[in-house]
Known about the structure:
Layout (H helix, E strand, L loop, with lengths): L1 E5 L5 E5 L12 E5 L3 H11 L6 H4 L4 H4 E4 L2 E10 L7 E9 L4 E5 L4 H12 L7 H34 L13 H38 L7 H64 L14 H23 L3
Parallel strand pairs: 3-7
Antiparallel strand pairs: 1-2, 1-3, 4-5, 5-6, 6-7
Helix pairs in contact: 4-5, 5-6, 5-7, 6-7, 7-8
Amino acid sequence: MLRVFTPGDEMALAEIDHARATLPEGAVWIDMINPTREEELFIERVTGIEVPTPEEMLEIETSSRLYAEKDALYMTATLVTGVFKDAPESHSVGFVLTPVHLITVRYADVVAFDRFAGHAERTPVLCDTSAMALVHLFDAVVDRLADGIEHIAGEVDAISRQAFRRARGRGQQRVSNLALQSLITRLGAVQDALSKSRESAVSLSRALSWLSFSAPREMALGPHLKSLGRDLNSLTDHASYMASNITFLLDATLGLISIEQNAVLKIFSVSAIVFMPPTLVAGIYGMNFDALPELHWQLGYPWALLLMLLSAILPYLFFRWRGWL
């Protein structure tokens, strides 16, 4: 699908058919969404540039993602999608900047592009030139990325509160092993989203740094790119801090699981020790000897029960006194 933005008094962001002979007059931004080969050939014919293919955008070398050809600047950035849906995915998006057009090539729905399109329709000055369109589009992408990282930070805080929650009043509220295992699953999902978001921030930062040196001076992109660069640096630093926080939460959650398991084993150990003296008493009075002093005693049975009860209670009280329970 092809969408073309034409600013002016009668601004328009409309879908066009590749069967047309030319683009609308004054077209600035050409957004190619899952383009077919026919649509690629159409854009190449009317603009005189080569549209990057999906295979080319998947290249990881910097020289293959950031380069200049004729009067066009080619940039490929990795953008993250689906953070708010808990289904993060990374997609390569191509940007081609010429003195007349901004061409974007993508094979995924990116919310930031749709938001920028809405803003551009309400404020056509955002797309006065192809360079301004690119800068403001990058601004929308960075804003969306920041919102995603803030969403991840909220999820990390929620996991932290749940992992270390304590009951008000007496005692402590334990977190079950199943709940802790669920937290580990959530931490894994959060780490996945954060790593993809950080990858996107680093990719955009590289593209902006390259653009600041490669863009012609007459485009006057310096102040805008510096501002975006500072925003991306702060997002990268915040993502690194959150990554260390997630690592701590993962270690702490594993430690809590180990503590809970040790507490269960301690209960079984104490139970075995508590019931050992009554077993000894029962074993003594169960011996097959004729000369047992309490054998024909009328109070022998209550005495044996009382002795077994005391032998169980005294070790328990001793453990509590020493703070082992």
